[in-house]
Design brief:
single chain; Glutamine Phosphoribosylpyrophosphate, subunit 1, domain 1; Rossmann fold; 8-stranded antiparallel β-sheet; 9 helices
Length: 354
């Protein structure tokens, strides 16, 4: 689960991005990096470790320019090395990207791009996005067309933000979170509202299979077929701003202590909603619960709680195994899905199957 952020505006980009990455520390990571556009070139600094550690040694927040992208990585493809840390530049260094998710067909794309002369310096699946974008942009000289042709070739679940050396940002979403922030002094795009909540509470939530192009004059949004799309601007809750650990040593301890209040505040009509869900559960013939990792452990606990207090039998399923047990589900079945992050790919896939 990586954190991605992009900024374009009147402020210096690097400090804004570094601060945003600090706010998203709860997501976990092993390396950090920032890229900015300045004086017709893309500048990149990155390294292994936490935001403060890498910033202290590499001075991430000193990069010049008012346009940039940032990333914290949780390694999937490739070891934990500086070379594998994001952002990743294209071979020409005219484009750099940050990426969250997994590109399933990166090996095929990489081999094809290498035959075309593109050079890869990392072991990641992410770097293929930078070079594929570069290849398409070199042909079209048009960011919209190059984004359309790039996403058409990517297979997997992803969100990415790209900075171009003409001072533009572009970002795309396919089954991974991506949020646009609209501030008085600039625009943001991030995997989490915490990345920019200090600067604006005005956001747009792009739908799946949509991308955005941002310059200093504004934003344009399109679907993956190239059609323009429009979204209402949403005002986020001020409670998002109160996201620091405070008196707690760890975010996990903070979240555990907040659970009683969080559950009760889950909806405006919580009692009505809980009663509705309770009725649905009681009427369900086959009741399943799924999770991944620690959320699966919670599902195992739920099995005993449902048995003891509700006198109901609930069957726990590991989310990654749901594709092989989907014949369990029928129109008398209910699946309860648990996710710590809301982004666990296996859990989201299980929900989609159900």
């Amino acid at each position: 689960m990586c954190s991605i952020i992009g900024y374009i505006g009147s402020d210096k980009a690097a400090p804004v991005i570094v601060q945003g990455l600090k706010r998203m520390e709860y997501r976990g990571y092993d390396s950090v990096g920032v890229a900015t556009f300045s004086d017709d070139q893309i500048l990149i600094k990155k390294g292994i470790g936490k935001v403060d550690q890498v910033n202290s040694t590499s001075k991430l927040d000193t990069l010049s320019g008012s346009i940039g992208i940032g990333h914290t990585r949780w390694a999937t493809h490739g070891r934990v090395t500086s070379a594998n840390a994001h952002p990743h530049p294209s071979t020409s260094s005219k484009i750099a990207i940050v990426h969250n998710g997994i590109i399933d067909n990166f090996a095929e794309l990489k081999m094809d791009l290498q035959k075309k002369g593109f050079i890869f310096k990392s072991e990641t699946d992410s770097e293929v996005i930078a070079n594929l974008l570069q290849y398409e942009f070199d042909k079209t000289k048009d960011i919209k067309k190059s984004m359309l042709q790039t996403v058409a070739q990517l297979i997997g679940d992803y969100a990415f933000v790209a900075v171009f050396n003409d001072g533009m940002l572009a970002a795309a979403r396919f089954h991974e979170p991506l949020i646009v922030g609209i501030g008085n002094e600039g625009y943001f795009v991030s995997s989490d509202v915490l990345g920019f909540v200090e600067h604006t509470d005005q956001v747009i939530y792009p739908d799946n299979r949509e991308f955005v192009i941002i310059n200093t004059h504004g934003i344009q949004m399109f679907d993956f077929d190239g059609n323009p799309v429009k979204h209402q601007i949403t005002k986020i809750s001020k409670e998002f701003a109160d996201s620091y650990k405070g008196e707690y040593a760890h975010y996990t301890i903070k979240e555990i202590s907040e659970q009683p209040r969080t559950i009760l505040k889950a909806g405006h009509n919580t009692k009505i909603e809980l009663d509705l869900i309770s009725d649905l559960i009681k009427q369900t013939k086959n009741l399943y619960i799924t999770g991944s990792g620690t959320s699966y452990n919670a599902a195992l606990v739920a099995k005993y709680i449902f048995s003891k207090y509700a006198k109901l039998k609930i069957e726990p399923l590991i989310a990654s195994e749901v594709p092989y047990t989907s014949n369990f589900f029928d129109n008398q079945s209910m699946l309860i899905a648990l996710s710590q992050s809301g982004e666990s790919a296996d859990v989201l896939e299980a929900v989609k199957i159900a």
